[in-house]
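About this split. The held-out portion is used to measure sequence recovery: a designer receives only the structure tokens and must propose an amino acid at every position. Recovery is the fraction of positions where the proposal matches the reference. Here is one held-out target exactly as it appears in the evaluation file.
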């Protein structure tokens, strides 16, 4: 029904535009066309209404930086197991009567993380609903987009900082168990050589921390947006004395190509992405870089239940229609923390 109303409205608008563009003129106080046909039969003929609803601007990042697993419903907890191995000092040499056995003990450790429920109420006022119907807008669908917008903002916060209101819940940017490497200088004054050296050191440290396991060698670097903006500048190379030569290669391209070469045999690909939330992160709140591997077996988000519409009721006090929504979102699961590295600005 909403689509039919909108199509009828748009047909009317096209008719108005065609009439308006065909030699419209004014005679005294009366508006007429070139053949003196009046415009009195047109309803709202002199007002053009854009049928497009212009919504708030937004951008979310959690879906780009965090892989998700689905827990399948209204859960409170999510768990995963990690195996640890203990061995004795024997050499497993099995020749002749002097053969020895090496004992390997396996331990399974259960790790549990939290899932929290989040609720929203969408209130639709009668007057706004009538306005929307006039131009054939699906009012419910339009304002459901608003609920989804604020829920995605919440998912960004959970992904990067942890569950809100829980002090020991952490996100990708503020986990105190992740090793921090200090940058050579403040990000606002760091040189290309210093930045390359800092990134290269953290990449290799992270790769070493996972015992050079190619599955978890870093393939992604998140940097503050302000620092990312400087990567488009041509790379400058110092010459003899005080001479400086600029190349036709941007610092961004140089970093991607040469950091990947240093990781040859460990994946060989590094993506560098801007993230505005990093601007005030770090020990001194001057900025932080995150080096990690985009892999659900390293770090992942947990979704118990996606945002779901619940009951719809009418409030007799003001005639509004209230619809309730619920979602279950979990804190990040850090399966392995050692292969992740932070670089903090001085």
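Reference sequence for scoring:
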């Amino acid at each position: 029904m909403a689509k039919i109303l909108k199509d009828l409205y748009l047909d009317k608008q096209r008719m108005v535009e065609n009439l308006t563009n065909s030699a419209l003129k004014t005679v005294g106080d009366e508006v007429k066309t070139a053949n003196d046909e009046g415009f009195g039969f047109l309803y709202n003929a002199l007002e053009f209404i854009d049928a497009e609803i212009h919504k708030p601007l937004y951008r979310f990042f959690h879906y780009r930086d965090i892989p998700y697993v689905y827990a399948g419903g209204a859960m409170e907890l999510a768990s995963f197991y990690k195996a640890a191995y203990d061995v004795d000092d024997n050499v497993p040499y099995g020749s002749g009567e002097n053969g020895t056995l090496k004992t390997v003990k396996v331990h399974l450790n259960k790790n549990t993380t939290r899932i929290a429920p989040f609720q929203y109420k969408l209130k639709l006022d009668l007057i706004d609903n009538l306005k929307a119907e006039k131009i054939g807008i699906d009012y419910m669908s339009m304002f459901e987009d608003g609920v989804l917008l604020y829920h995605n903002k919440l998912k960004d916060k959970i992904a990067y900082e942890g569950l809100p209101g829980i002090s020991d819940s952490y996100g990708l940017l503020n986990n105190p168990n992740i090793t921090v490497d200090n940058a050579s200088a403040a990000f606002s004054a760091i040189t290309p050589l210093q930045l390359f050296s800092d990134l290269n050191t953290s990449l290799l440290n992270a790769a070493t921390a996972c015992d050079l396991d190619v599955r978890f060698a870093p393939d992604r670097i998140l940097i503050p947006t302000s620092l990312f903006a400087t990567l488009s500048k041509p790379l400058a190379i110092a010459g003899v004395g005080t001479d400086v030569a600029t190349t036709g290669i941007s610092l961004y391209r140089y970093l991607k190509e040469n950091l990947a070469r240093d990781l040859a045999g460990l994946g060989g690909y590094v993506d560098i992405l801007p993230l505005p939330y990093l601007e005030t992160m770090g020990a001194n709140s001057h900025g932080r870089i995150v080096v990690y591997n985009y892999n659900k077996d390293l770090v992942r988000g947990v979704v118990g239940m996606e945002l779901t519409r619940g009951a719809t009721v009418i409030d007799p006090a003001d005639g509004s229609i209230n619809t309730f929504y619920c979602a279950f979102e979990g804190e990040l699961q850090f399966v392995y923390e050692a292969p992740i590295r932070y670089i903090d600005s001085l």
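Annotator remark: Residues 22-29, 31-43 have pLDDT under 50 and may be disordered.
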